[in-house]
Amino acid sequence: MSDLQSLVSELHGAVERKQFEAANDLLSRSKRALLMQNALIPTSSTPPQLVVLARQVLELGALASIRQTDAQLFTRYYQQLQPFYDLERHAGLPGQSSSEVDFSTSQRSKITGLYLLLLLSMGDSANFHTVLEGLVEEASLKGGRVEDDACIKYPVELERNLMEGSYDKVWRETKSERVPSEDFGLFSNVLVGTIRNEIAGCSEKAYPSLPISNAKNLLFLDSEGAVINFAKERGWILRDGRIYFPVEPEATARSERDILVASGTVIENALGYARELETIV
């Protein structure tokens, strides 16, 4: 047990220092040690202290994978952690007997919030709501709300703003002090990329053209040069300082009013943010 504790301590230091080569080696050694003690999946016979160490190893593995931008590996760690988090989930429910396992060092809230943010950035709404519904039910049984947890509230608020088409609010949230930790910020580029493509798709349907200067703020890009590169990637036409969107065959039969009704809310929210930026500048 003491050898495993030393490994976990070294692993924690390597992950915090972002020494990922060392961290990955320590993760392999730690998981082998846990496997030898049949502790990678907790059972009723697993010593409580060993349960805690196993959970810490998997949580550190999850954080290391996030910091190495390996979403698939993070997802596997999240799944491996669920039996440990089930213990924590059940321990706090009314009528359940107290557990000898120490949950004070658990990073369940952070890992779950990161997983929700990952699902959101991937556009996986179905799994996002499946996980969220479980959290809502658990919080209700414990007499609380999911919004009471900052790590869960953050992706929930982002998802709500996305569903409303309030992309300006999403952008602000990803750049604000309300981001729970640096690890959550690592998903910002992916999420903003998702938003940018959504706005681009709506813009193509809502307008025949836009000035490049407006598109810069509308698409949350840093320069007009970045707008030009993005426009070329999407096959937009650039002429006389404007972007001209390709006209889809079925769109020609629709009136401009119908098109604006279909996607006006999204564009107006984003353009409002663009105008606000222009007044600041």
UniProtKB/TrEMBL annotation:
Pfam families: CSN8_PSD8_EIF3K. Gene3D superfamilies: 1.25.40.990. One of its GO terms (cellular component) is nucleus. It comes from Penicillium concentricum. Keywords: Proteasome. Residues 79-261 form the PCI domain. Belongs to the proteasome subunit S14 family. The keyword Aminoacyl-tRNA synthetase does not apply. PROSITE patterns: PCI. The lineage of its organism: Eukaryota, Fungi, Dikarya, Ascomycota, Pezizomycotina. One of its GO terms (biological process) is proteasome-mediated ubiquitin-dependent protein catabolic process. The keyword Magnesium does not apply. Transmembrane segments: none annotated. This is PCI domain-containing protein.
